[in-house]
Amino acid sequence: MELIRKEKINFSIDLHESGTPDYFIDRKNGEVSPGSRLAYMLVCNPKALEIGAETVLALEEKGISLKVDQSNPEFRGLSHLEIGNATDCLSFLSETPNPGQDTWREAPDVLFDPDYPLKMRVGICVEVVKSLADIYGETTGKKLVMENVPSYEELQEKDVGAFLN
User: d(Cα 36, Cα 66) in Å, to the nearest integer?
Assistant: First the structure.
């Protein structure tokens, strides 16, 4: 919080992974249970909700579907809520689905899962950051310049390792 105040940070993004949205058989009771509701979500501090909603629409145009939600004030301690409430910083949380977060999976492949590969999750995170920065810049006039950042498509084609130094 002190660094955000001292450096006058304009917006922050907390990139997380949740369980997948897949339904599964609950081992405890044998019933079908829903997967993580957080998968594919952008959570926004209330004062950042408009930028978050515009970002989700921009991502939809790129073929990336996310849900948008407002930080719940009942869940004290969450970065997107506390940072946004205690500073001038607009704060967000992005959640992508990671099969390694599913407690019901026997041996999840967190790198090459056919439905949730790492390159897809990284691609979503990259596009979330770029889109939030673009919408923030359009809204405030404070542009964030990013260079040599691969697109979602490039990450899908070449995989993450092609961009690591």
Answer: 13
